[in-house]
UniProtKB/TrEMBL annotation:
InterPro entries: Spore_V_R, SpoVR-like_C, SpoVR_N. Residues 17-351, 475-547 form the SpoVR protein-like N-terminal domain. It comes from the Archaea. It comes from Halomarina oriensis. Pfam families: SpoVR, SpoVR_C. This is AbrB family transcriptional regulator. Residues 549-601 form the SpoVR-like C-terminal domain. Coiled coil: none annotated.
């Protein structure tokens, strides 16, 4: 038997083992209120997994050196740093998920439950809908790969020139309008009389010396029709790639001037721009999406026993490795914040019911209500909490918490209720079975209701229904409120709005978040604040524009010389000057003429730093305007008067923005 036959049989065996977990995980996900895309699972080996991770989760991408570099990094991470690839799933309909054949069955089950939650997020989060309501990403990326490969194979096109062109475009891959729906850039660019004049001069066969002496650059610029003079666009353009697609020109080194894009250049730019829009929602929702998947994976594997008894310790190790990996961890932050939202929603629901009990107000709440007794009363019905084949007689088929059809099948021994107890419950039954406020890890959450919390809740209660006693009020508590609210949030938010709206001081204190900064007084990093506003701003700076500087097109005819002016929308974090200069060199190749970057920098005087250090305080840097320019030969930097950059400066990092405003 050949190696390929052995490998195929191995994958078939693993696929056979996973048929039931795949089917039942989807069934359980839907019972829990999720609505995922259909998922196709693929069994792949170690090398194939590394290739897919390098390719961003797809089997075919355009030819470029970046994929080899990513593959090498991934391989070394697993080989030398102890990393382990569990899964990769893409946003597609159907979604495609890839399972590494060498992973244990417990790992595979964890991946499957994780993937089902991702597929639900892909389908229902509105930010993913900005690119396409029904994505067929695998086909799109495959077509892009074929198109760019064809350009490289064209005998009239230099293959290395195509790769260099891709390099130029990729330095701006995140300079798009991520909050707007994707739309194709139409047209072939604007007509340029300047280019026509240059072409006419070429046709005269004049020497370079004569052209420089008689037809200098200033004269050529003066021939531009007056109606083209002036700044454009009217408003700063966020989609830098689209602007370059419409108005850019390639720089011809031999002719030493700007020329119209070749068809392959224009098409490649647009294909890469489309891919940037496709991947943008994944970057914009990293914390939400990974936290969402980690939450429901934990629910299914741990609390619903999808991990068998002999697999549980292995799964616990699996989850610990994911949630406790060093550095910033979107899985951990996201899962904790989703749990906080669930608990806060459920707590508010309970408080609203209790505040309607006769004689109870927000002022006397803690005197009239025994929260220990409330906690006990909220425990799930034992018939729902401890389901087993020998306890089915405790379930009532007419109970809305019970799935009557599945209960009948279980009583007929057609359902393994000991293995899959959730099958005999409805969504309402599962809400009660997994009610968050009575879980051991959350039992103190209800007791943290403060007087100010109660006053705020009472202020916005518009339902005047009253209950005779606490028992009647608790019987009316909606156990599904937390999960219902989580799904609403999942639909409309991205990471910035998610953190802005739901990160609270209580959450920061409970989960021990803090900020740290480099301090000049001690010349090292120190914890600086546990205030929620500081933590929030620090976190959101990592997610605004994917954590990269926001750069927009301010003027496509800067100083009326057809130069490009880019502006850095300063948020208190300065750009890396070395990288900025390298990017300008790349952009020059896409504009064909000098390019400029207007930004704000911070300057510290060495004397002020030393004085501040001696006084054990931080020096206050001076903010200055800078213009960095590249003309095709050299980089220059000049200071600008403050009024020239004042419009770029943020007086504060303002994230008081709601999802509807972002989606408008």
């Amino acid at each position: 038997m050949s190696d390929s036959d052995t490998e195929r049989r191995q994958k078939q065996r693993i696929a056979g083992e996973l048929e039931e977990p795949v089917r039942e995980a989807n069934h359980l996900a839907r019972k829990l209120g999720l609505d995922p895309f259909p998922v196709k699972y693929w069994i792949i080996d170690y090398d194939e997994m590394n290739e897919l991770i390098a390719y961003g989760g797809f089997q075919e991408r355009y030819p470029h050196w970046r994929w080899g570099m990513a593959y090498d990094r991934q391989q070394k991470q697993t080989q030398f740093l102890g990393g382990k690839a569990f899964e990769i799933v893409n946003n597609d309909n159907p979604s495609h998920a890839f399972l590494q054949e060498s992973n244990a069955l417990a790992d595979q089950k964890a991946v499957i439950t994780h993937v089902e939650a991702h597929a639900d997020f892909f389908k229902n989060n509105q930010w993913f809908g900005l690119f396409a309501d029904d994505p067929n990403a695998a086909a799109m990326l495959s077509n892009h790969a074929d198109a760019i490969e064809a350009f490289m194979d064209d005998p009239e096109v230099d293959r290395e020139a195509v790769e260099r062109w891709i390099d130029h475009v990729l330095c701006l891959e995140d300079c798009i309008d991520q909050h707007s729906p994707f739309s194709t850039v139409e047209g072939e660019g604007v007509e340029r009389d300047l280019a026509d004049i240059a072409d006419q001069l070429d046709s005269l066969g004049l020497s370079d010396e004569v052209r420089r002496q008689v037809f200098d650059e200033e004269w050529v610029e003066s021939q531009r029709p007056e109606e083209e003079a002036g700044s454009f666009p009217e408003e700063p353009e966020l989609d830098v790639l689209a602007f370059l697609r419409r108005h850019g020109m390639a720089y011809d080194e031999d002719a030493e001037r700007a020329v119209e894009f070749e068809d392959w250049q224009r098409e490649t730019l647009e294909l890469l721009r489309r891919e940037s829009y496709y991947f943008a929602p994944q970057k914009m929702t990293k914390v939400m999406n990974e936290g969402w998947a980690a939450y429901w994976e934990s629910m299914m594997m741990g609390e619903e026993g999808f991990a068998a008894a002999d697999e549980f310790l292995h799964y616990a190790d699996h989850q610990a490795r994911v949630l406790n990996s060093p550095g910033f961890n979107p899985y951990k932050l996201g899962k904790e914040l989703w749990e906080y939202i669930e608990n806060a929603t459920n707590r508010r629901e309970v408080a609203e019911r209790l505040l309607r009990v006769e004689g109870v107000t927000w002022r006397n709440f803690h005197e009239r209500i025994d929260l220990d007794e409330v906690q006990t009363a909220l425990e799930p019905d034992p018939a729902l909490d401890r389901i087993a084949a020998d306890r089915l007689d405790l379930l009532d088929a007419d109970d809305p918490r019970v799935d009557a059809e599945e209960l009948a099948r279980a009583r007929a021994d057609d359902v393994d209720v000991n293995r899959y107890p959730w099958k005999v419950l409805t969504y309402e039954g599962l809400c009660e079975r997994h009610y968050s406020l009575v879980k051991p890890q959350h039992r103190g959450f209800l007791k943290r209701l403060s007087q100010s919390d109660l006053e705020r809740i009472a202020r916005y209660m518009f339902d005047d229904a009253r209950y005779a006693d606490v028992e009647e009020a608790l019987a009316d508590v909606d156990r599904c409120a937390g999960w219902d609210r989580m799904r609403e949030i999942r639909e409309s938010h991205n990471d910035v709005t998610f953190l802005d709206e739901f990160l609270s001081q209580e959450f920061v204190d409970q989960n021990h978040y803090f900020t740290y900064e480099f301090t000049h007084s001690t010349r090292d990093y120190r914890a600086t604040s546990t205030d929620v506003e500081d933590v929030k701003k620090k976190l959101m700076l990592q997610f605004t524009n994917f954590g990269k500087p926001t750069v927009v097109v301010e003027d496509g005819n800067y100083n009326n010389r057809n130069e490009l002016l880019l502006s850095h929308q300063y948020n208190g974090v300065i750009v890396d000057a070395r990288q900025a200069k390298q990017v300008l060199k790349r952009v020059f190749e896409l504009w064909g003429r000098p390019v400029n970057l207007k930004t704000i920098s911070k300057q510290l005087d060495d004397h002020d730093v030393e004085v501040a250090r001696r006084r054990d305080r931080e020096p206050v840097p001076e903010e200055v305007g800078l213009l960095i320019r590249y003309d095709g030969e050299r980089i220059t930097t000049e200071e600008l008067p403050w009024e020239a950059v004042e419009h770029l400066a943020a007086t504060d990092v303002d994230y008081d923005t709601k999802p509807d405003e972002w989606l408008a």
